[in-house]
Q: What sequence folds into this?
């Protein structure tokens, strides 16, 4: 028991000046507006895209059904991209009361697993639907071109999709998942310490 | 309780907990700040399901545990207190530096448990903060104290 008293005595010698509370308020407000701004910016950008696409539909009155399907698919892709982003945001902020550390670690692990899923599956779905949508949408306009120009247009588009799919997508996924998996291992390690 | 009272009452305590976890004044200061930003945001939602102390230490403990997420890009404290900090650092007594060092050699969860114990939280409260059973907490505290005592003994204290 002697060590007990000693440790507490030593522990309590640590004194450091409490910083002014105003500094905290400034910092908190800055953080708050920054994350809110990011959410708003992403949503507005994507909503503008949707509005723009709808405007094209309304203004040019496409005749072929492929164009319409293409437009719908593109909008769907945008929504698919938007949903998890917003959900992720609410997962982090909607906690009612602070959970205990054990629950907290489990929540973090779950959140990371969701993010891994989003990065792999959702990103791929997003790419497929978006490519399909744009490809279909283009058909009506390309069909009005000469055959040579039509082939060139589609070739360039397909090349662009291929770069996205075979190069950018795997690269993004690997990079993001490496980071997430490392964190997952760390959180699992902490979680295991609870059960020691 | 209003936020400023909480801030004044608990800042030192939370800082010591974070210091026990991080063993680095700058990091502990950042963790403490992060904890109080969270307290400030969540205070309107706090409904006295637990004592305010338990609640604050839960937030602090979770903030510490989450820290590894940012270890790589650990921001140096943005507070303009750096100069004061250096002076304080060198003035901290040898004993407390040793204690922090020994605690930092423990596992992360153990660091939090012993810091809470040294902060005079009882075992029931620690169990509520960490999410373990009281019995488990008791065993862990006993083990940790033995480890620390051994370390001190080795050093000739």
A:
């Amino acid at each position: 028991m002697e060590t007990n008293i000693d440790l507490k005595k030593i522990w309590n010698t640590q004194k450091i000046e409490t910083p002014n509370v105003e500094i905290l308020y400034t910092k908190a407000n800055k953080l708050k507006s920054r994350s809110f701004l990011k959410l708003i910016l992403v949503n507005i950008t994507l909503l503008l895209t949707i509005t723009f696409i709808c405007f094209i539909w309304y203004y040019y009155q496409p005749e072929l059904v492929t164009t319409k399907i293409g437009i719908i698919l593109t909008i769907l892709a945008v929504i698919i991209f938007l949903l998890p982003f917003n959900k992720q945001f609410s997962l982090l902020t909607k906690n009612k009361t602070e959970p205990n550390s054990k629950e907290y670690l489990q929540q973090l692990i779950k959140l990371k697993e969701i993010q891994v899923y989003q990065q792999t599956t959702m990103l791929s779905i997003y790419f497929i639907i978006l490519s399909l949508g744009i490809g279909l949408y283009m058909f009506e306009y390309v069909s009005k071109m000469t055959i040579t120009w039509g082939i060139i247009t589609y070739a360039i588009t397909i090349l662009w999709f291929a770069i996205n799919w075979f190069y950018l997508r795997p690269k993004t996924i690997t990079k993001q998942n490496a980071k997430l998996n490392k964190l997952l291992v760390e959180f699992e390690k902490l979680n295991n310490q609870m059960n020691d | 309780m209003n936020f400023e009272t909480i801030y004044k009452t608990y800042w030192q305590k939370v800082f010591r907990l974070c210091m026990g976890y991080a063993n680095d004044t700058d990091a502990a200061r950042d963790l403490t700040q992060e904890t109080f930003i969270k307290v400030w945001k969540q205070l309107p939602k706090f409904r006295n399901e637990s004592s305010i102390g338990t609640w604050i230490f839960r937030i602090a403990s979770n903030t510490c545990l989450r820290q590894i997420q940012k270890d790589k890009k650990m921001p140096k404290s943005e507070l303009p207190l750096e100069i004061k900090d250096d002076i304080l650092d060198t003035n901290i007594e040898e004993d407390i530096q040793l204690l922090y060092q020994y605690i930092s050699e423990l596992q992360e969860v153990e660091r939090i448990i012993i810091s809470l114990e040294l902060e005079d939280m009882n075992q029931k409260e620690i169990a509520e903060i960490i999410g373990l059973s009281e019995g488990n907490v008791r065993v862990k505290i006993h083990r940790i104290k033995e480890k620390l005592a051994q370390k001190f003994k080795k050093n000739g204290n």
Remarks:
- Residues 19-195 of chain A form one domain.
- The CA atoms of residues 142 and 150 of chain A lie 5 Å apart.
